[in-house]
Amino acid sequence: MIIVDAHQHYWEPSRGDYGWLAQAPAALRRAFLPNDLRAQRQAAGVQYSVLVQAAPTEAETRYLFELAHEDAAVVGVVGWVDMETDDVGAHIEALVRDGNGLLRGLRPMAQDIADPDWLARPSLDRAFDCIHDCGLAFDALVDMRHLPALLRRLHRHPHLNVVLDHAGKPAIADGRFDQWTSWIDELAQHPQLHCKLSGLLTLLGEQVDEDAIEPYVADLFSHFGPERLMWGSDWPVLTTHADFAQWLRIAMKLTERYAAGSLAEVFGANAVRFYALDVDLPDQNLMPHQNLRSTS
């Protein structure tokens, strides 16, 4: 089975553009680069990876392109662009060109923007149009405050391929479920929205408790089905709570429990299809309706 990690990071704090690291756990305030992950990924049997931005600069996106050339497992990059700049289209096209096929999506760090309605601003329409026109996906890095605005954006751009990072960051540590699942119910009715099975362990307290995340995973499968979920490690943020292989085992076990027989889709084929990655999959890894990237 081909396994694709749909969400991992590299960063080098000495670059100076990772402002959020100042408030992050001390264990994360160091460099995490290809040599730190390569052996763990290989031991876990993960062949490919999508590298996701961690700094709100185009310079960091180009840095990720460089790292992708050092790490043969990286088959796609989700980058960053200032979506409110007047010439946003030119900026996106330049990143597409500089990535030479690596740029597969864009992600503003919406969770760090004070305005919870930012994603719904009409001033962003031009950027979203260009993302779609360039054949890119949109990664929604949000928490529950932003889900109403994301819903409005989905209404405005019904043909844009969107993925919800880390399941929208439900308040698992507080045991709050009803508000999150209500929003997921509305969001999942938009067929262009996919969701990453990622980042859930780090929403817990200090202890890793599989039982605490299970209701959320069950709800994700109920709403999105195995066709619109894709696994991501969220490494190295993951390392504050578990190692790479541990989270992979937990996620596989829960997937088998709630969508038996769909490991190939959730752990590989869905990410390949969604991000249009240059990865050859055995025919048996694709459901009949998954052999083309969705354009809905």
UniProtKB/TrEMBL annotation:
<dbReference type="InterPro" id="IPR032466">
    <property type="entry name" value="Metal_Hydrolase"/>
</dbReference>
<dbReference type="Pfam" id="PF04909">
    <property type="entry name" value="Amidohydro_2"/>
</dbReference>
<dbReference type="GO" id="GO:0016787">
    <property type="term" value="F:hydrolase activity"/>
</dbReference>
<feature type="domain" description="Amidohydrolase-related">
    <location>
        <begin position="4"/>
        <end position="276"/>
    </location>
</feature>
<keyword id="KW-0378">Hydrolase</keyword>
<dbReference type="InterPro" id="IPR006680">
    <property type="entry name" value="Amidohydro-rel"/>
</dbReference>
<comment type="similarity">
    <text>Belongs to the metallo-dependent hydrolases superfamily.</text>
</comment>
<protein>
    <submittedName>
        <fullName>Amidohydrolase</fullName>
    </submittedName>
</protein>
<dbReference type="InterPro" id="IPR052350">
    <property type="entry name" value="Metallo-dep_Lactonases"/>
</dbReference>
